[in-house]
Amino acid sequence: MKMMYPKNGKVILHIDANAFYASVETAHDHTLKDKPLAIAGNPKERRGIVVTCNYIARKRGVYAPMPLWEAKRKCPELVVIKPNFPLYRQMSKNMFDYLVTISPLLEPASIDEGYLDITNCAELGSPLDIAKSIQQHLIQTLQIPVSIGIAPNKFLAKTASDMQKPLGITVLRKRDVQTVLWPKAVEEMHGIGKKTAEKLNAIKIVTIGDLAKAAPGLLKQTLGIKGEVMKERAWGQDDRQVNPDRQSQFKSIGNSTTLSQNAVDEHEVLPILNKLSRSVSSRMKAKKVVSKTIQLTIRYSDFKTITRSQTISKAISEPNDLFHYSAVLFQKHWNGEPIRLLGVAALQVSHHVQEEEQLDLFTYGEQAKKEPLYKAVESLREKYGDNIIQSGLKKQRGKKER
């Protein structure tokens, strides 16, 4: 069996759950199995955008992100369910808890996909045997279909898993790159978005093969250092290791809400930011993580969306701190136009213990003094409601009252 594994290289699987949210809902309610299903918000709350849909709905012209009214026009019998994120997170945990039993070298890339290094798993069978076993186990135990890419590196494994959906298993070797990948349009390459593709098309790079053969200097001039990386990927080269710690190092925790009515006054916005901050704080504490970078998302009534962040000197997780910095970001960056959506996120979270070790005596003393206050405030709010204590903020100069 070891002969089926490379002597010096790696064998990487990319496991990608198919239509994950819809699959979880179907696993939870088997009556949905043969029905076109979309996950979307409540139209009455103006969240009428399809988040994802199952493959039955996709065959009838429904896709994400499609306005819900259009999806229903294309597929009148469409079943629409509001997102149930706690359920999705639990299913994701169940999936990854199983995958790590195959190999400890597991790197979750998002809630529904991850990389698994099986280079040292020859005793479990061939790479294809392992992939089939994973696929069958997840269907039988969790009712979650997955597509799996098998390759010598992460880039090719991710590319391979996208080739056959749903329930596909694809092997992609470096020697296949020129025949399989090079004829494809450059925008089909993993890691290249619409804007990057437009820049490449403008310099006559249309296919992945064109990218592979392009002059390094031209790519660097057009895309910066990313151009060099993209050229390597076009040749099937990727030396990134599967890193089990990567998720905890770079994961973000956030929450957002679409407003039932456009907000035009900061006095409407601040309580919403406060509520979002408390939600984010609760999840951070449950995971025992902290962050030094807070991000605010504002989507205006014309759907223009901006994200602004601030990095601070000390790591935080308390709701009052999250609220303070999100409010400061709001007052600094809001252009005064009507707001449709607000979001608060903690970026690049890290474990609380790691940050505690980095605190100096002065910072520790300051935080220790605040801790009883935070706990008292939270206790009062839990007992008497959110409005029992309001945080004070200086009004931005020059801002007209509405």
Automatic annotation (TrEMBL):
Q: Which reaction does it catalyse?
A: DNA(n) + a 2'-deoxyribonucleoside 5'-triphosphate = DNA(n+1) + diphosphate
Q: Which InterPro entries match?
A: DNA/RNA_pol_sf, DNA_pol_Y-fam_lit_finger_sf, DNA_pol_Y-fam_little_finger, DNA_polymerase-Y, DNApol_IV, PolY_HhH_motif, Rev_trsase/Diguanyl_cyclase, UmuC
- GO: which molecular function terms? damaged DNA binding; DNA-directed DNA polymerase activity; magnesium ion binding
Q: Where is the UmuC domain?
A: 12-193
The active site lies at: E113
Q: Annotated site (Substrate discrimination), which positions?
A: Y21
PROSITE patterns noted in UniProt: UMUC
Q: What is its EC number?
A: 2.7.7.7
**Record keywords:** Cytoplasm, DNA damage, DNA repair, DNA replication, DNA-binding, DNA-directed DNA polymerase, Magnesium, Metal-binding, Mutator protein, Nucleotidyltransferase, Transferase
Gene that encodes it: dinB
For this chain, the family text in UniProt reads: Belongs to the DNA polymerase type-Y family.
Q: Which Gene3D superfamilies match?
A: 3.30.70.270, 3.40.1170.60, 5' to 3' exonuclease, C-terminal subdomain (1.10.150.20), DNA polymerase, Y-family, little finger domain (3.30.1490.100)
Q: Where in the cell is it found?
A: Cytoplasm
- A Gene Ontology biological process term: SOS response
Please tell me where this protein is predominantly located: cytoplasm
Q: How does it assemble?
A: Monomer.
Top-level lineage group:
Bacteria
Q: What does this protein do?
A: Poorly processive, error-prone DNA polymerase involved in untargeted mutagenesis. Copies undamaged DNA at stalled replication forks, which arise in vivo from mismatched or misaligned primer ends. These misaligned primers can be extended by PolIV. Exhibits no 3'-5' exonuclease (proofreading) activity. May be involved in translesional synthesis, in conjunction with the beta clamp from PolIII.
* Cellular component GO terms held in the UniProt record: cytosol
> Which positions are annotated as binding Mg(2+)?
D16, D112
Q: Which cofactor does it need?
A: Mg(2+)
Query: What is the name listed in the Swiss-Prot or TrEMBL entry for this protein?
Result: DNA polymerase IV
Q: How is the cofactor bound?
A: Binds 2 magnesium ions per subunit.
